[in-house]
Amino acid sequence: MTYPVITAIAAGIIINLQMILMMICGKSRYKHSQGLGDKGQPELLKRIRSHGNLAENAAIVLLVLGLLEMAGINQMIIIIAASAFVIGRFLHPLGLFKTSGSSIPRAVGVAATGIVGMAGGLYLIYIAVGML
Is CATH 1.20.120.550 correct for 5-131? Predict the structure, then answer.
C-alpha cells in the first residue's frame, strides 16, 4: 500500500480553506457581537453555513479519495476526482457569500461534492465486494 499523495495534497488545500472560512466566520461573529448562533444576521448565517458545509463534507470525501487511492485506482481518476472536489469546495462559499439563494457557483460546488462522494462511495463498495 502506498501513501495517498494526491489525497494528501487535496487534504492540505481543504484544511487551509477550512481555516480561512473559520477566520471569515470568526470575523463576522466579532462584527455582530455574536458568539453562538447567527442573531438573525444574513451575512453571519452565510459565513456560518459556508464553514459548516465544508466541515460536514470534507472529511468523508477525503477519506473516500484516500481509500480509493490506496486501493490502486488509476491515478488520473483520483486527480480528476480530487480536483473536482477541491474546485467545488472553493466555488460553494463563493456562491454563498454572494447570495443566500441559488447561485451557479454554489450549485456547481454542491454537485461536484455529491458526484465525487457518491461515485467514490459506490466504487469503494464495488472494490470491497470484489475482495470478499
Answer: yes
